Structures are given as structure tokens and as C-alpha cells.
Amino acid sequence: MASARHTGANRRAGAAARIVDGKTEAIGELVLEVAQCFFRIRAVGRKTGLITSWGGGVFGFMRSLALFGPLTVPQIAQMRPTSRQRMQRLADELAAERLVEFVDNPKHRRSKLVKLTRRGNARYRELNARFLGIASTMGVALSEADIRRTTGFVRQLSDEMKARLERGRSAIRPADTVAWARRNKGRGT
């Protein structure tokens, strides 16, 4: 991916017009690389059955239930940047395949708990083995320490993005960014 610092527009604008520092640019590049990686992961997930054809994360949904036990659909949705309706659709599809079941929730009469069935547990173990098989063939040139450090960095950025979403729009698009965009509109920066 070409760095914004090296585009012709930025070279012509000169150093005085350059507002973005190296760290900011590096974070921007990291975010774009993670996004690109996500789309590739999703494509592999669809080919291997870890993700439905419409993008529902079968593996992630079932993994949440395997790790945390029975959960409500809203609880599962809160763990992801997605809607309750999308998770309900996935829960209904998995229930139709008898991989999950809806059970009474002692804490809430109307919000049922979603629970893996015996068949669902077996399917989860199969998907997890497939996932780990794919993971074992990736990053062969990286050490375990490099991978864990990178995971920590990506998790930290993800947590920061989640906090911004929870704080609302002003945290996503601060006034100085809007002002910068207005000043540089049409300049190719």
C-alpha cells in the first residue's frame, strides 16, 4: 500500500502543508491493512464454512456460546459491532439446523437464552479444528512473540474504536478533523 506521504499531491504541497505526522500516517495504514485483511479473512471464512454466504459469523457465534455458555441474542450482539436483528437471524438459522436451541432465561421471561446443542458442540469443535488448521499455516515467518505483540496492538486499537463508538459521533469525527478537511478540500491531500 502506497504511503500518503509519497503521493504527488503531498510532494507538491510541501512540508509546511503536511499536517499528518508519521505516527498518524502509520496508524492510518494499519487500519487500512486490517480492513483489507478482514475482507480476505471473510472470503476464506465463506469458502471454509466458518462464515455464512450472507456474512453471518457462524464460528464466532458458536465460539461465544462455547466460551461463555448460554447467552441472549442481545448479549451476543453487544459483543460485536452488529445489530441484534443480524444475530437473531443467525441464531434462527443455527436453530433450524439444530446446532443451537432457545431455552428459558431465569432472569428475563421474554429474552430466551441461546445454547449450543450436543450437535452444535460437535460442529463447533469441527469448525475450531478447521480454523486452527488454517491458522497453523499462516505467519510462518513470524515468531509467536511477534504474533502476540501484534494481536495486542490490534486489540488496543479495536478497544479505542469501540470506546469512540460508545462515546458517540463527536468522538469519531472531532472538530479539528472537520476543520482540516474543509481547509484542504480540493487540494488532493
Overview of this structure, please?
The chain has helices spanning 8-17, 22-48, 58-68, 73-78, 84-96, 118-136, 144-167, 169-172, 175-183, and strands spanning 71-72, 100-105, 108-116. It has 189 residues and is mainly α. Among the domains are: 49-137, Winged helix-like DNA-binding domain superfamily/Winged helix DNA-binding domain (Arc Repressor Mutant, subunit A), CATH 1.10.10.10; 139-175. The chain has a three-stranded antiparallel sheet with strand order 1-3-2. Strand 2 and strand 3 (108-116) form a beta hairpin. The two termini are 16 Å apart. Residues 1-6 have low confidence and may be disordered.
Largest sheet: 3 strands, antiparallel
Instruction: Supply the CATH superfamily name of the domain at 49-137.
Output: Winged helix-like DNA-binding domain superfamily/Winged helix DNA-binding domain
**Radius of gyration, whole Å:** 21 Å
The CATH architecture of the domain at 49-137 would be: Orthogonal Bundle
Helical residue percent band: 55-70%
Question: How confident is the prediction overall: mean pLDDT?
Answer: 82
N- to C-terminal distance: 16 Å
Question: How much beta, percentage-wise?
Answer: 5-15%
Classified by CATH, the class of the domain at 49-137 is Mainly Alpha
CATH fold description of the domain at 49-137: Arc Repressor Mutant, subunit A
The parts where pLDDT drops under 50 for at least 5 residues are 1-6
- The number of helical segments is 9
